[in-house]
Amino acid sequence: MLISKIHNNKKIDMTLDILMSAILPVAQKGEEILKLKAATIASDEFSSEWLIGLSNAMNVTMFERNGVGIAAPQVYVSKRVIIVASRPNPRYPDAPEMQPVVMINPEILSFSDETDLGEEGCLSVPDQRGQVARATTIHVKYFTLCGEQIETTFSGFPARIVQHEIDHLDGILFVERL
Ligand SMILES: [Zn+2]
């Protein structure tokens, strides 16, 4: 029993190590995982090591590839987890700076009637950019990694990122909105 416990812990530690440090492969347009409706995170999964490990790995993968957002299905995990992290970088030189936000089970409660047309790209669609119409302002509900419920408003480019990433959770790519 002790041996199996040690073995199991070691296995979990190794999995976490990989998740914490690795730059994960990113699913590409055409792959099934990007077409699925991702599953809700259950309440007993909040604060779990795997959820924190997943968000760390998503963060590392997004930064390494100069993304300003990422959704779990893009790293082959069909769960409702996104990161929104607008900042200027070589792919988006004019992006405003914000603190990265991890959102679990995000939901858009309301969209402004006003929309903006703006350029989008996607780590899963590397060779294409396009002008997509998105609501200028959205009111969003989500949970933190610890399960705290947050309601907040996003405008402009960060609002665009949130809408793009939540689309990923519903199996939609920006190219379908062109
Ligand atoms: Zn994308």
UniProtKB/TrEMBL annotation:
Residues annotated as signal peptide: none
List the catalysed reactions. N-terminal N-formyl-L-methionyl-[peptide] + H2O = N-terminal L-methionyl-[peptide] + formate
Q: Which domain of life is it from?
A: Bacteria
Q: Top-level EC class, please?
A: hydrolase
Which stretches are transmembrane? Answer: none
Key words, A-Z = Hydrolase, Iron, Metal-binding, Protein biosynthesis
Q: What EC number(s) is this enzyme filed under?
A: 3.5.1.88
Q: Which positions bind Fe cation? A: 122, 164, 168
Free-text cofactor note: Binds 1 Fe(2+) ion.
InterPro entries xrefs = Peptide_deformylase, Peptide_deformylase_sf
Q: Which cofactor does it need?
A: Fe(2+)
Task: Tell me the Gene3D superfamilies matching this sequence.
Answer: Peptide deformylase (3.90.45.10)
A biological process (GO) of this protein is:
translation
Pfam assignment, any one: Pep_deformylase
SUPFAM superfamilies hit by this protein: Peptide deformylase
The active site consists of 165
Q: What does this protein do?
A: Removes the formyl group from the N-terminal Met of newly synthesized proteins. Requires at least a dipeptide for an efficient rate of reaction. N-terminal L-methionine is a prerequisite for activity but the enzyme has broad specificity at other positions.
Family per record: Belongs to the polypeptide deformylase family.
This chain's protein is named Peptide deformylase
The source organism is Acinetobacter stercoris
Q: Which gene encodes it?
A: def_1
